[in-house]
């Protein structure tokens, strides 16, 4: 068993009730490389970055000839640019990631799907279905915004200063520290630690993020067309309004008439609490997208008389 304390890591011997301090090391001294080791670990286990991400590209070559380490999508359909350094971030990693993000921000939905299909060595229909299954919002919102995650063992003070400044101006950029430790048997342990934003500042960051989203929504309203169906439904967390549009899109609004960015979890909750028994998967066994799930839930709420006024 391993315990972490103030930048140190200990291995716990349960039988002896003793803590053995592990020795800090570096990736370089262990002959571990940025591209062929660290990149592979994160690709196979993206949860080490602290959240659920779908990796959609590795060593993605950009028009400039540069290669982006890892490209991912989060549950909100935002592109996540992951830039890796081994033992030291250097002074330019933030600028490098910003350039990559600027380029990726212009990807259309079809381009994101196409790049993922290449990564999967599959076709675009399969890639589109996997993305639609993973995200909790409409596919049309794919790449409406972007994020950056920097990963390194150590960070130059210039990078830390730049990241904090960028965050103050609404750029969603994070710093994750990966610290290696070794025990007396030579086994390697990795400690992931998000240093920006600090976990203690989570509430503050979320409030700022909500404000930024509201401003963006006011500037670029979600184009959905005319309402063709609308129902209200009461569940344990409040009353929600489901709307279906002639574009086939589905929107979910809370009691304050605010559109829920993540509609799919609310739809699943409605299905469960109202015992609608709408299948969450399609004929291929994959999760239904928001459009299909929303359409069927609206139909069942009406058929079973479980909508409210």
């Amino acid at each position: 068993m391993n315990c972490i304390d103030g930048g140190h890591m200990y291995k716990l011997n349960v039988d002896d009730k003793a803590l053995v301090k592990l020795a800090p090391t570096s990736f370089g001294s262990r002959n571990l490389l940025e591209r062929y080791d660290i990149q592979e670990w994160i690709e196979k286990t993206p949860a080490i970055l602290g959240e659920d991400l779908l990796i959609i590209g590795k060593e993605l070559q950009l028009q400039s000839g540069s290669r982006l380490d890892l490209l991912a999508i989060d549950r909100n359909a935002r592109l996540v640019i992951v830039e890796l350094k081994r033992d030291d971030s250097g002074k330019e990693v933030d600028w490098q990631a910003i350039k990559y993000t600027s380029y990726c921000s212009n990807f259309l939905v079809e381009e994101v799907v196409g790049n993922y299909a290449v990564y999967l060595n599959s076709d675009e229909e399969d890639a589109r279905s996997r993305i639609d299954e993973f995200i909790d919002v409409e596919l049309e919102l794919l790449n409406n915004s972007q994020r950056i995650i920097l990963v390194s063992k150590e960070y130059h003070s210039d990078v830390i200063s730049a990241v904090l400044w960028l965050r103050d101006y609404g750029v969603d950029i994070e710093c994750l520290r990966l610290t290696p430790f070794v025990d007396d048997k030579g086994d390697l342990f990795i400690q992931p630690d998000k240093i920006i934003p600090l976990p203690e500042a989570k509430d503050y960051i979320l409030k700022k993020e909500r404000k930024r989203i509201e401003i963006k929504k006011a500037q670029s309203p979600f184009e959905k067309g005319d309402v063709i169906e609308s129902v209200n439904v009461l569940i344990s967390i409040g009353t929600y309004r489901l709307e279906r549009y002639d574009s086939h899109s589905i929107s979910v609004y809370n009691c304050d008439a605010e559109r829920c960015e993540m509609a799919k979890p609310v739809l699943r909750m409605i299905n469960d609490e109202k015992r609608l028994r709408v299948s969450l998967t399609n004929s291929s066994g994959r999760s239904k997208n928001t459009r299909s799930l929303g359409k069927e839930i609206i139909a069942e709420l009406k058929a079973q008389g479980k909508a409210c006024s």
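Residues 202-219 form the longest helix (18 residues). Helices lie at 34-44, 93-104, 109-120, 124-134, 157-168, 202-219, 263-273, 290-303.
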